[in-house]
Amino acid sequence: MSRSKPFSLNSLSSATTKSYNAIINRLSSEGAFSDVLLTYSSMLSTDTPPDAHTFPSLLKACTYLDLFSHGLSFHQRVIVDGYSSDAYIASSLISFYSKFGHTQTARKVFDRMTERNVFPWTAMIGCYTRAGELDVAFSMYDMMRHQGVHPNPVTVLGFLSGVLELVRLQCLHACVIRYGFGSDLALANSLLNVYCKCGRVEDAHVLFELMEERDVISWNSLVAGYAQVGNIREVMQILIRMKTNGIEPDEQTFVPFVSAAAMQNELRLGKLVHGHILRAGLDLNSNIETSLIGMYLKCRNVSSAFRIFEGVMHNKDVFTWSAMISGLVQNECADMAIAIFRRMVKSKVMPSTATISSVLAACAELGSFSQGASVHGYILRQRIKLDVPSQNSLVTMYAKCGHLEQSCSVFDRMSSRDRVSWNAIVSGHAQNGHLCKALLLFNEMRETVQRPDSITFVSLLQACAAIGALHQGKWIHSFVTRSCLGPCISIDTALVDMYSKCGDLGSAQKCFDRMPQQDLVSWSSIIAGYGSHGKGETALRMYNEFLLSGIRPNHVIYLLILSACSHNGLVSQGLSLFHSMTKDWGIEPRLQHRACVVDLLSRAGRVEEAYDFYKRTFLEPSMDVLGMILDACRKTGNVEIGDIVGREIVKLKPENAENYVQLSHSYASMKKWDGVGEVWNQMKSLHLKKQPGWSFIELNGTITTFFTHHSSHPQFEEIMLVLKFLGAKMTKLDIHDIIIPSEEEG
User: Fold this and answer.
1) By CB count within 10 A, which of 179, 268, 351, 547 is most buried?
2) pTM
3) What is the pLDDT of residue 737?
4) CA atoms within 13 A on the CB side of 106
5) Pairing of strands 702-707, 694-699
6) What pLDDT was estimated at residue 538?
7) Is residue 720 within 8 Å of 709, Cβ to Cβ?
8) Is residue 631 within a helix (H) or strand (E), and if so which, with residue range?
9) Are 88 and 57 in contact (CB under 8 A)?
10) Measured between alpha carbons, how far is 309 from 349 in angstroms, rounded to an integer?
11) From CA 105, how far away is CA 12, in angstroms rounded?
12) 512-527: pLDDT as tens digits
């Protein structure tokens, strides 16, 4: 289409206001708003005066071109020329101020009108609707009817742009029927769309069937409605009906269909829709491409998403880049997400706050402080104004990278915080082992309007579990109970995990039994608790109960139950479970499962079987697994296999000092002193030094660490005195129990 030219003196021999208005109105209807203003400039240069028919198009141009100051100038000219009372101009002024968010100014224009027809009322109702003040908009509608002014279809359309409540929608639908607007296609389509947004797809379908006329927008609205609720079968039926009725689907028909496939993780369906789009010969615009990329990534088909992304021939917009980056993060491809972000920056596309949030999440996933700080630096250099969600991502990124000082700095500078902000800073401290500070921040959070939720409590309970802080864990449990947050499966599971890891298996079992329903993670927590505290038989019993619940086991729960068997000497049960993985459930054993079997056999002294299993099932050598076998050889005195395993470890040239120390101890037990010397010399040549063994205790939220053969603790002498005193008392108690028989024996 050829672009319209602005009117000038050269285009007409005799320029009049009417002829200028005709050109201005034509340009406005064609969307050539810059030319509208240029033509008006020509009009002024010829001393042709504007009239009441000139200003509505000028104000509309200012609205679309985001020229607020120009619009103010036109308003002043309207006042000077005495056109303020003109209903059409007043309506244009109300719409102008409304679009720029100046609702109060729009209302002043409305209130100063001496006479009002339906147009200013419609403009004012639309103004309040766009501002989210629906109560005021409906009040204006009642006032309009009270003054005897009847609405028109545009009045109802203004309402529908902001209504999402079914009762109000039904009132507007009744208004449409009462005033006979049912045949207005645009209005019917809008009603159809809002019914779908309110989740009343069946009502939308009834309306659709009653429509006298339908266009592709009508069909697309119904497709979007059924796709939104995941009714794929009905969507397919509508597509068939479209073709039967001679309506060709367009790009907008398939976008919600693709989104529905993504929502349900239906890769096969998504590919089917993609094929339909290609066969229909539709242009893959940015909207469809972004939807397809999002669908493939949601269905974890990264390669197909990349093919579409790389095949985008036109300039990729911010939505396409953002869909790719966020999808890669969700698919645990954080390094690729950061690489795509770098390409986005090089292509001079300004990222949105959603893009920033995704790339910061990628940095957090990798624990890469340098890359996260680099992104933060880019934000500051580009003067990107971050919203609350992106600031929350920044807080989380620094916390997950272990830089709490920077995390707190970002948090403290936030002008407004939501619940996610508080959860980010509380969980950040909790995950980094600063339980006391996390609890202090938790108390600060309680003093604000933000109420702690399940995420807050889960992060605190996980911190208590990590350091064995049973007292604090019980306090949080008490607070959860008082807050009436239950039942919540994530909190209940965290409680089971916390009590299990703190050694209070009785409380863990009680929490587990009180759960209205258990999921895979809940069962995993209780089984792991029993397994790690020497209750192997109980762990097996719980596993059998788990199977009866009907939940399908996964590789994690198998790893936990195999570990329980290994640590409790349940060899035959462990081997049986390992074989059932593939036989009964089709789960391919991973390296960790195979390592558990080696550990199981090694702990039971069945070294030959352990080594044979290792040679059969490990295609690549594993230093840690060989170390298990080597320890078992030392304990059982199996010199032959110990020597073979020792040589294999030496061939692997370990870079860990612990491996060399283990090898040295093994050679010493076999009295191979040359081997001991060789191992120590190799350690020295590699400048390796074994870290001393250590343990810790938690007391009142403070963690105290103890190292083997270290006397650097400030209270070392007092601790040693108490230990000697307790040792002496324990010795006396043992002697007393041996010497003095019980009354039954006496």
Assistant:
1) 351
2) 0.72
3) 52
4) 25
5) antiparallel
6) 96
7) no
8) helix 623-636
9) no
10) 15
11) 39
12) 999 999 999 999 999 9
